[in-house]
Structures are given as structure tokens and as C-alpha cells.
Request: fold
Amino acid sequence: MHKTELRKKYKSLRNKLSLTTIEDLSIDIANQLLKVPVWNKTYYHLFLPITEQKEVDTSFILSVLQGKDKEVIISKSNFENHTLSHFLLTENTKLIKNGYNIPEPADGIEVPESKIEVVFIPLLAFDHSGNRVGYGKGFYDRFLSKCNPDAIKVGLSFFEAENKPVTDAHSNDVKMDYCVTPGHIYCFNK
Reply:
């Protein structure tokens, strides 16, 4: 399927989820994530959800990371060039919502992509080959291409893999190593 079709389909499916269902599914994803072999690292990039878009609530994953004394990194978006800059999340980090309702750090200690060892990735859909479909601006492809090649890329999805492959994946699209859903852990390229 084409990315445009997948975006439409999965935005619609997500919009039908109640807040209670989102919370329950997000807890299930966090519990599944505990089974993925990524917990021996130090620097973890976590997206903060756009609640208006009904994204996975990553607060449960954040609690796990903090409980394991991991360094958590969050991003700030630059919509002029579709890039992300990354900051250490500390108890002093002030979060503000940008014009797209993305919670972002106001400022802080900037962290280079090369230090990031695990990236949790938001997405709308994915296929059995590890291709993911996001909102289509390429923020994460640009970011992931700058990360160390050994960085582990983990998608988070409320829904299972699309049975039909993404037919218009580009050569610059960065595939995931894992994708975690409430019911499954998909492993790609490992």
C-alpha cells in the first residue's frame, strides 16, 4: 500500500480510540517493551506524544527509563528545515507545546545524535519488513540517518503490522530494528 493510503487508514483508526483505550494500550506497549533487549544502554531518545493526534502515551516508558536510571533525551522540532535537535530531559526541563501541539523542551543541555543508543519512534503504520509510515515530513528519517549505525530503532504502534508492504518506501527511509505493539514484538534486521 502507498503511504498516503496508510496514513489515512491509520489516522482514522487512531481517531476512533477512546482515551481509556489509549491508556490501556500504552501500558500494554510499555510492558511488551520490557521484553525487548535494549535495556543495557545509557542514552534513550523518547518522543513526547501529541495527545491531540492520539499518539502512544510514552509516560509509562518514561517511568521505566527513570526507574532504571537511564539518560532520557527529547527533541525540539525545526519546521523550516524539518530537523530535530535533542536535549537531555532533567527535573529542571521546562516543556512547552509548539504550534503543532508537540511537547518540547524550552532549552537545556543539547545532546548530539551520535550519543543516542536507543530511539523510540512514533509512527502511524508499519509493514512486516520494518518500513514505517509517519506524518510524511521526514523528521525521523533525517534524525535516524545521523545516529550511530548501531543505534537501536524501536517503533511504537497501537496496531499490528500492515500485511501489504509499503510500496513507495524511499531509499532514504530508515527501517526499524523492532516495533512494539500491545500484543507483539516485531524484530527486523537482527
